[in-house]
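[Q] Does anyone have a clean structure-token version of this?
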Amino acid sequence: MGAEHGHTLHYHAHSLVHRLPAHLKIASALGFVLLVVATPRGATWPYAVHLLALLVAMRAARVPAAYLLKRAVVEVPFVAFALAMPFIATGPRVDVLGLSVSEPGLVAAGALLAKGTLGVLTALLLAATTEPADLLVGLARLRVPARLVEIMGFMVRYVDVVAAEWRRMSVARTSRLFDARSPRHWPVLARSLGVLFVRSYERGERVHLAMLSRGYTGSLPTLAAPAAIGPAQVLAGAALPTVAALALAGQAVLG
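[A] Here you go.
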């Protein structure tokens, strides 16, 4: 199986957020994201409250904002779609910076950008403050089906192995003067992906046989018993979704 190792998303620090139990952080992040999604599209100040609460959590976790922002590039497709919505949506038109845009599309784009950004930053903060192995233990404690947890565990352990295999194949193609600069080279890349899939499948079979020979019976052993949770940890873990719930309730009352 290999030794436990860190992940590129994890930020090593010794903060209160890092010390919180993984399952508490997962439940807190999930509750916060659900409350953000439930925030009405036309609201403005609740999103500011959500962002402020998230920034406070980042400060408490001692994770630099630049560290998370560099890894938030995964949101770029959603940003591009949100920027296009005011121009492709129908409905009443308004002028913004000399451009005629759809008012409903503008509101929807703002909500999509706010919810997407908050959701991505929350997931990145969770990953930055929790080791992958602890995340798997937390998911198991939250009664996520064991098979799903094991699949995610193998994915975390062997995604670097598959990536290294792809890099070796890329070096082999480059050494043969291959340079994919046009759609004419896409069939070669497609065949390379097929070969990578076959090699990964074969490697998976070999790993499974090796595990069976070492006594694997369908479940991985737990290395340590989960620690008890104190009231202070519960309050710290519930702070983020509580603030989001108060902001949502205030929006419902004030309208």
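[Q] Thanks! Anything notable?
[A] The chain has two domains: 16-139+226-254, 145-213.
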